[in-house]
Amino acid sequence: MTQLTFRDARPDDIATILRLCHAGDARGPDTPPLDPQTLDDPRYLAALDTIVADPNQRLIVAQRAGEIIGTLQISFIPGLVNFGLKRGMLENVHIRSDQRGTGHGAAMVQWAIERCREAGCTYIQLTSNKIRKDAHRFYARLGFSNSHEGFKLAL
Amino acid sequence: MTQLTFRDARPDDIATILRLCHAGDARGPDTPPLDPQTLDDPRYLAALDTIVADPNQRLIVAQRAGEIIGTLQISFIPGLVNFGLKRGMLENVHIRSDQRGTGHGAAMVQWAIERCREAGCTYIQLTSNKIRKDAHRFYARLGFSNSHEGFKLAL
């Protein structure tokens, strides 16, 4: 299996990341169909700048043989309890559909787990839409427990 | 019903916030029994400083007649999709046990929803331990949908 490499996203990755986030069964309520005419909308560059400027956010791309095959975002959330418990949160974990079942998705999440451990997080959390049973099995295999209900409210 | 007032937490609120977070059925895996001897541990002040210094974090206390009766933390998470979708996340939502069933808990969460709306969040999310059926009914009444599984992994 070709090794994955990971790096923070750059402006020229925006279109690729958006296509990954909007593809196939990864689509959730926050990712309606992507209009390809909007990929160079300046708001995307502004949004990436905001993420990059925040030391508690990392928008990551995973590359295999020079090609981006996956993306995820890590958010570090500082807290008060337990002498300042910090948690890591994963959002928008997406892998290209032709790369599923290869172990690359697991390698991506394991990489993110290591970054959270390095950052001193006590635990790592994520939510996954209840219809995505395949994703739930995937996270369970990686040691995650679905101990919580994930509530959302559109504003 | 006496009106609640809300403000950001200050150093002299730390012990009260910790007692609220560790009380009764609010206790989760991240809040083991609180050792009262540790309430003035300097790590708590450092943790509060970290939260206050981060413009994407707000640790809030709710007061009624001058007394703190509840607390919650709002985290604003910047994102890329949908032209820079921002979400609000609630953590450590706790109300003093003698104040339950008074509507004050709902008022606290509604206040937090308004802050997320003001901040331009597209939605607000939270996770709640599966054993806390009362909390699930509470969030459902406020319009939240438990559309997601909430996964956690201790590091």
Report on this model:
The structure is a homodimer of 155-residue chains. The first copy, chain A, has 5 helices and 6 strands. Chain A has 155 residues and is of the alpha+beta class. Chain A has a single domain (8-141), classed as Aminopeptidase (3-Layer(aba) Sandwich), CATH 3.40.630.30. In chain A, strands 1-2-3-4-5 form a 5-stranded mixed sheet, sandwiched between helices. In chain A, strand 2 and strand 3 form a beta hairpin. The mean pLDDT of chain A is 92. Chains A and B meet through helix 1, helix 2, strand 3, helix 3 and strand 4 of A and helix 1, helix 2, strand 3, helix 3 and strand 4 of B.
| Poorly predicted segments of chain A | none
Mind describing the biggest β-sheet of chain A? 5 strands, mixed
Would you give the CATH topology of chain A? Aminopeptidase
**Fraction of residues in β-strands of chain A:** 25-35%
Radius of gyration of chain A: 16 Å
Q: Write out the CATH superfamily name of chain A.
A: Gcn5-related N-acetyltransferase (GNAT)
Strand order of the largest sheet of chain A: 1-2-3-4-5
Count of all domains of chain A: 1
Task: Name the assembly state.
Answer: homodimer
Could you tell me the mean pLDDT of chain A? 92
User: What is the CATH domain class of chain A?
Assistant: Alpha Beta
Structural class of chain A: alpha+beta
